[in-house]
Design goal:
single chain, alpha+beta, Jelly Rolls, Arc Repressor Mutant, subunit A, 2 domains, five-stranded mixed β-sheet, five-stranded antiparallel β-sheet
């Protein structure tokens, strides 16, 4: 019978305790190599089918050539090639107990948000949206990419294994920032390589938005969210938005607003409905919010647009 054990990972100490590693060398960051035979850990035993984690940390894991499955964000990701998975705080994920062999090509780097909170990287990390991607949107690495990221991770490992001084945290954070930048570069290349399939998602989004703006959901729920659009494409909202940005130059939110403005202009010019009635059609509870958004995107209020283009 299947059973699930839930573990809330709040600190680096929690990670080391779970993996039965020695006391962390640094309270806010750790590095580990190889796979983990989870079923051999006595705190869980062989009777468990999977482990569920509630997470407060950042995880960067290189999955290596070892076959396996990693469930995250409602998807199951089978990996048989080198890939990097990024997980941010407030995520829930689970590792089915399927790992038996230690594999030096697998490694992990885990850090607490407090490590970078007071540094510039603490604000910049919000730009690295791959921490919000689903597991089936992992970063696939070639030999050069794997070598580069492994090298940066090794530099952090070296810092953790020597005497700490006033430079330690800055060097660790500098290398973390480089990992993020290189990962962004490699994701850009991955998007470019998959341009044909990306065009499919751009077309599918337009069809989804057309259907949504013609449905009752618009008046009841308002404009669709980025996550709704992603779910319609079987992608995370963040991945879809980044994909579209590379393919079309516009994020998912910009595509939503473009459709909103186009539909609004049509109603303003071709119907006698009041501004308030049109606002309610788009799910706005307060017409002034509708007018503010329209003006923000067009530079004029809905009433001014109607007057100017109807020659009133």
């Amino acid at each position: 019978m299947s059973s699930t054990k839930e573990l809330h990972i709040k600190s680096i100490a929690d990670v080391n305790e779970f993996l039965q590693l020695e006391k962390p060398l640094h309270p806010l960051v750790t590095v580990f190599f190889g796979g983990c035979a989870f079923e051999n850990l006595p705190q869980f035993g062989r009777g468990l089918d999977d482990l569920k984690f509630v997470n407060d940390l950042y995880f960067i894991t290189m999955n290596g050539n070892q076959s396996g499955a990693f469930n995250y964000g409602g998807n199951s990701y089978d990996y048989e090639s080198d890939s990097i998975t990024f997980i941010g705080p407030n995520q829930v994920f689970n590792f089915p107990i399927q790992y038996h062999d230690q594999n030096e090509e697998r490694w992990g780097l885990i850090f607490h948000p407090d490590l970078i909170r007071e540094h510039e990287l603490g604000n910049q990390i919000k730009e690295y949206t791959f921490f919000d991607y689903d597991s089936n949107e992992a970063l696939i690495l070639d030999a050069n990419g794997k070598k580069v990221l492994r090298g940066l991770m090794n530099k952090i490992f070296i810092e953790l294994n020597q005497s700490f001084d006033k430079y330690t945290d800055d060097i660790i954070i500098q290398n973390l920032g480089s990992i993020f930048k290189y990962s962004s570069r490699y994701y850009d290349a991955q998007f470019q390589e998959r341009s044909n399939s990306n065009q499919y998602f751009a077309r599918e989004l337009e069809l989804f938005l057309e259907d949504y703006f013609s449905s009752e959901s618009l008046a009841k729920k308002g404009l669709p969210s980025i996550n709704q659009c992603g779910e319609a494409m079987n992608l995370s909202g963040s991945y879809l938005s980044d994909l579209l940005k590379k393919e079309t130059g516009k994020s998912t939110k910009e595509h939503i607003y473009d459709m909103f403005i186009d539909k609004t202009k049509t109603l303003l010019l071709n119907s006698k409905e009041s501004i308030s009635e049109i606002a309610y059609k788009f799910g706005f509870q307060y017409p002034q919010h509708f007018s503010s958004l329209f003006k923000l995107k067009t530079g004029m209020s809905p009433s001014d647009f109607r007057k100017r283009n109807r020659g009133i």
